[in-house]
Design brief:
With about 600 residues, the chain is of the alpha/beta class. It folds into 2 domains: about 240 residues, MetI-like fold; about 210 residues, P-loop containing nucleotide triphosphate hydrolases (Rossmann fold), CATH 3.40.50. About 50% of the residues lie in helices and about 10% in strands. The protein is built from 23 helices and 10 strands. The strands form 2 sheets. It has a 6-stranded mixed β-sheet with strand order 6-7-8-3-9-10, with helices on both faces. Strands 2-1-4-5 form a 4-stranded antiparallel β-sheet, covered by helices on one side. The longest helix is centred in the N-terminal third of the chain and has 37 residues. The protein is elongated, with a radius of gyration of 33 Å. The relative contact order is 0.10. One of its GO terms (cellular component) is plasma membrane. InterPro entries: AAA+_ATPase (IPR003593), ABC_Ni/Peptide_Import (IPR050388), ABC_transporter-like_ATP-bd (IPR003439), ABC_transporter-like_CS (IPR017871), MetI-like (IPR000515), MetI-like_sf (IPR035906), OppC_N (IPR025966), P-loop_NTPase (IPR027417). This is Peptide/nickel transport system permease protein. Keywords: ATP-binding, Cell inner membrane, Cell membrane, Membrane, Nucleotide-binding, Translocase, Transmembrane, Transmembrane helix, Transport. It is found in: Cell membrane; Membrane.
Length: about 600
């Protein structure tokens, strides 16, 4: 770990350099990677330098040398038309590999972006793109290429563009399936709540998940493109005026009885190139995914969906920071719709800490998610009003929510480790929202991130800044999430069971940290919890929730000392603080008083 933060200038660059060095070392220690890369470099270099390495014009024919053996300057001899085989092999590689690159570029440019958008957003675009992809995959590629040649002409480059369109669905289906699974990860929700735009989340947090499969698929598709291009030329369907490996195979096959060795050279070139591509892709996948960057665990997809309800007519005064009136959250549609939150009224004023208390399944998190705009797939606000800093957010678009997240409202989740992207360092995840929301330079954002880590009482902030999530403890990860929530100076902090996953000692430290930050910054806090001890220690007011409804509200002292609702009394009676201590363990004895050994 570097002692200086890139001279306090560029922390991510300082952290990235060791990662690149480690990957380079892993690559160089992998014989498969080194050998396959060396083979491809030699083939690519020879093809690119064909005009310099060849001994003449590949199309120059001299019938007197037909089938002539090798001679100085012509190491592979001459073909049936007296053309130099070595020159045709080099120039043919330029055309064969160039055509494959065109097909690959077209397939990547259509399939990968389409898969990312369809997998991340879903809805009508996903359905339409899936239908188009299935339709294209159902088409017989060779028949389409033959028809394209008849319509568009025999130009090989045009046929390779058509081939790229035909193989694009393989990239689309691969990427779309992975993204649809990963878009519901908690760290993606955390990035969304921090105010990042969708395109930035896709490019930074989602694309990294499909990196390795794309590498493998690229190698396979490149091999297919080379083989199909060579197959077209072998069948005589290509342009015919360019030397290619497939055309050389065609000619050699026609004269196999006269000179069988002519088939070996283009065949070896095709086989070695395709094999080296697959082996290199496999090695690159291992280098990228092994080691410090661990691929995220995939979960079932979740997506937020909000519909526009009617705003209730309510004359009660509403808090300026957060005011919820008659909130209802439903799942399903039509007659099968089920309400999980019913008519919730809730207010949080500036500088106030409000506890939302209830047993698991009472609707606390659903209410908080409604305020944040991150309800799970199938959930929607079916009725009510939510004013966030004076802005009605029910029915608000994702773009509208982004304008509020980060600097108006921030979120601290209950599972710290799953809300941090395992593929990026702590520092990079803290710096990114500040650069986007606060328009800070990389250096200023890094300095602010380090200061935030100090404020949340992390002893060695520079080490944590450069660490990955799996390299820190759960308590430290929760402190990092609190630092991230504070990074853009929000006015409202929603903390959803922030100490549930921590041991009691760390819980006390985190609660003290929240109390101090709230007092220093004048935050409004909505604390979602089922722990009445946390409420008594931290909250100014309490709202008790049961079966999706608020059953009692009041000051903390009033609700805990003089509960007015039977459910509140049940919650308080369940607390064991006043229960008598368990008796000390006494060893069992026999009838004669002898102690039974343990």
């Amino acid at each position: 770990m570097s002692e200086a933060l890139m001279s306090d200038d560029h922390p991510r660059a300082g952290a990235a350099a060791p990662r690149r060095a480690n990957r380079a070392r892993r690559f160089l220690r992998n014989p498969q990677a080194v050998i396959s890369a060396l083979v491809l470099v030699l083939i690519g270099g020879a093809v690119l330098l064909a005009p310099l390495l060849s001994t003449g014009d590949p199309d120059a024919a001299e019938l007197s040398k037909a089938f002539a053996a090798a001679e100085p300057g012509h190491p592979l001899g001459f073909d049936s038309a007296g053309r130099d085989v070595w020159s045709r092999l080099l120039h043919g590689g330029r055309n064969t590999l160039g055509g494959a690159l065109i097909a690959l570029a077209v397939a990547l440019s259509i399939g990968v972006p389409g898969g990312l958008v369809a997998g991340y957003y879903g809805k009508w675009f996903d359905a339409l793109a899936n239908w188009v992809g299935n339709f294209v995959m159902a088409l017989p590629a060779m028949v389409v290429l033959l028809a394209s040649r008849a319509i568009l002409g025999p130009t090989m480059w045009v046929l390779m563009v058509v081939l790229g369109v035909l193989v694009a669905p393989s990239f689309f289906r691969l990427v779309r399936g992975i993204v649809a699974n990963v878009r519901g990860e908690l760290y993606v929700d955390a990035a969304r709540v921090s105010g990042l735009r969708d395109r930035r989340i896709i490019a930074r947090h989602v694309l990294v998940v499909v990196r390795a499969p794309i590498i493998i698929q690229t190698a396979l598709v490149a091999g297919i493109a080379i083989s199909l291009q060579a197959g077209l030329e072998f069948l005589g369907i290509g342009s015919g005026d360019l030397p290619t490996w497939g055309a050389m195979l065609n000619e050699a096959f026609q004269n196999v009885q006269r000179s069988p060795m002519f088939m070996a050279w283009p065949g070896l070139a095709l086989g070695i190139t395709s094999a080296a591509l697959v082996l290199l892709a496999s090695a690159l996948r291992d280098v990228l995914e092994d080691g410090d960057a661990k691929p995220p665990k995939l979960r079932a997809a979740r997506r937020a969906r909000v519909v526009t309800p009617a705003t209730p007519d309510d004359d009660r005064p509403r808090a300026s920071l957060l005011s919820v009136r008659d909130l209802a959250v439903s799942y399903g549609a039509g007659a099968s719709a089920v309400d999980v939150v019913h008519g919730v009224d809730l207010d949080v004023a500036e500088g106030e800490v409000v506890g939302l208390v209830g047993q698991s399944g009472s609707g606390k998190s659903q209410t908080a998610f409604s305020v944040l705009g991150i309800l799970p797939e199938g959930g929607r606000v079916s009725r009510g009003s939510i004013l966030l800093a004076g802005t009605e957010v029910v029915g608000l678009s994702e773009k509208g929510y982004r304008a509020l997240r980060g600097d108006v409202v921030a979120y601290v989740p209950q599972e710290p480790m799953t809300n941090l992207d395992p593929a990026f360092t702590i520092g990079s995840q803290l710096v990114e929202p500040m650069r986007l929301r606060l328009r800070l330079s990389r250096k200023a954002a890094a300095e602010r991130a380090l200061e935030l880590l100090r404020q949340v009482e992390i002893v060695d902030p520079r080490r944590v800044f450069h660490a990955y999530p799996h390299q820190i403890s759960g308590g430290m990860a929760q402190r990092v999430l609190i630092a991230g929530a504070m990074s853009c100076d929000p006015r409202l902090l929603i903390a959803d069971e922030p100490t549930t996953a921590l041991d009691v000692t760390v819980q006390a430290e985190v609660l003290e940290l929240l109390r101090r930050l709230q007092a220093e910054r004048g935050l409004g806090v909505l604390l979602v919890t089922h722990n009445l001890g946390v409420v008594a220690d931290l909250c100014d007011r309490v709202a008790v929730m049961n079966a999706g409804r608020i059953v009692e509200t009041g000051s903390t002292e009033q609700v805990l000392a003089h509960p007015g609702h039977p459910y509140t009394r049940t919650l308080i009676d369940a607390v064991l603080d006043d229960a008598p201590a368990r008796p000390a363990w006494v060893a069992p004895r026999t009838d004669d008083g002898t102690e039974v050994p343990a």
